[in-house]
């Protein structure tokens, strides 16, 4: 009998999984903090491994003699040592389509909330000494149709953001060297051929690129300085794409007016906290209404959570029970 192992206690039962897999698959639900805590018997039996928040190293994979597939229950797959998996002939798959609408909506909510001063006025009106009942003059607030939106990474989520942003009146330009020519014409948006070409026109910059050796740290101090005065930066992709210290410098200078972050370089953030996050949590006055942080929650809705569960099981079933696996990440892909 084929065995699929869930090392995290994500659900209260396995009824949906059994329905998807059928009677020929044994589902093991465990609750460990890291893969290394799994017992030997479970590792020896597992042919399929489901991963949500945990990391899978080469050392971890060595404990699974029968493993044939690892499914990342999400979009990103940087938590899995794919070179080690490829050396063993283990398929690595992801679930790329579970929360596209939610993340796109979240990114739009952050940029609109910042650009319309919602967070700024909210903070001011609930302060110990509430602000006067009048508008606050700030470089954050602009008429949306006068603004350029720069999108880095035009995959499913980046495309969904572009379509939503057009409806609000943003002038949308994207940078993604891997999208074919003509993509911009199909969507009715503009294209920048380099990051340096994109940034000077991005009154709002929204990141939607995967984390790869190429994209890690792609936005440092030099790059962020290319943004227009008073820009807003949104990151709902991966924290290590952007230098958080550089963002803090430019927020303090006023060069960047505001930022919305759903991801951080280290999650959950540990000690020592990045200076920007420490100032945010201390509610330092200079950041009031200018920085919004959410805990990697952009993907979430009850519907998306259900999608993750079902689509992950369907992906694993395709990998183990058919000769047509889906959502396979090629070993050479970053």
Please characterize this protein's 3D structure.
It contains 13 helices and twelve strands. With 334 residues, it is α/β, with parallel strands linked by helices. The longest helix has 20 residues. Helix 5 packs across helix 7. The radius of gyration is 22 Å and the shape is globular. The protein has two domains: 117 residues, Rossmann fold (3-Layer(aba) Sandwich); 194 residues, Rossmann fold (3-Layer(aba) Sandwich). Strands 8-7-6-9-10-11-12 form a seven-stranded parallel beta sheet. The chain has a five-stranded parallel beta sheet with strand order 2-1-3-4-5.
The CATH architecture of the largest domain can be named as 3-Layer(aba) Sandwich
- How many structural domains? 2
Report the mean per-residue pLDDT as an integer. Answer: 96
Q: Uncertain regions: pLDDT < 50 for 5+ in a row? A: none
Count of alpha and pi helical runs: 13
Order of helices and strands: EHEHEHEHEHHEHEHEHEHEHEHEH
Report the CATH C-level class of the largest domain: Alpha Beta
Instruction: Indicate the radius of gyration in whole angstroms.
Output: 22 Å
Essential attributes:
334 residues; alpha/beta; 5-stranded parallel β-sheet; Rossmann fold; 2 domains; 33% helix; globular
């Amino acid at each position: 009998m084929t065995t699929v192992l869930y090392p995290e206690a994500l659900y209260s039962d396995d009824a949906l999984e059994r329905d998807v897999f059928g009677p020929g698959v044994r589902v093991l639900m465990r609750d460990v903090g890291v893969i290394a805590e799994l017992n030997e018997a479970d590792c020896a039996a597992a042919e399929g491994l489901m991963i949500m928040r945990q990391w899978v190293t080469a050392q971890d994979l060595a404990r699974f003699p029968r493993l044939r597939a690892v499914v990342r229950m999400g979009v990103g797959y940087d938590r899995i040592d794919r070179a080690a998996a490829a050396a063993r002939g283990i398929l690595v798959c992801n679930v790329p389509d579970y929360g596209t609408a939610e993340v796109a909506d979240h990114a739009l909510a952050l940029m609109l909330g910042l650009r319309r001063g919602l967070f700024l006025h909210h903070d001011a009106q609930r302060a110990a000494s509430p602000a006067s009942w009048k508008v606050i003059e700030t470089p954050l607030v602009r008429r949306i149709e006068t603004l350029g939106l720069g999108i880095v990474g035009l995959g499913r989520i980046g495309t969904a953001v572009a379509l939503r942003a057009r409806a609000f009146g943003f002038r949308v330009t994207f940078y993604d060297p891997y999208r074919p020519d003509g993509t911009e014409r199909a969507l009715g948006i503009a294209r920048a051929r380099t990051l340096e070409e994109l940034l000077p026109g991005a009154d709002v910059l929204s990141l939607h690129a995967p984390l790869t050796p190429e994209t890690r740290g792609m936005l440092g101090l030099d790059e962020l300085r290319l943004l227009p005065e008073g820009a807003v930066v949104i990151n709902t992709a991966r924290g290590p794409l952007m230098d958080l210290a550089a963002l803090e410098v430019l927020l303090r200078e006023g060069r960047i007016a505001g930022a919305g972050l759903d991801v951080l370089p280290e999650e959950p953030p540990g000690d020592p906290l990045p200076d920007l996050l420490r100032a945010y949590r201390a509610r330092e006055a200079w950041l009031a209404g200018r920085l919004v942080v959410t805990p990697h929650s952009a993907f979430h809705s009850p519907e998306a959570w259900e999608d993750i569960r079902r689509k992950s099981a369907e992906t694993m079933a395709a990998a183990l029970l058919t000769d047509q696996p889906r959502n396979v990440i090629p070993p050479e892909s970053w």
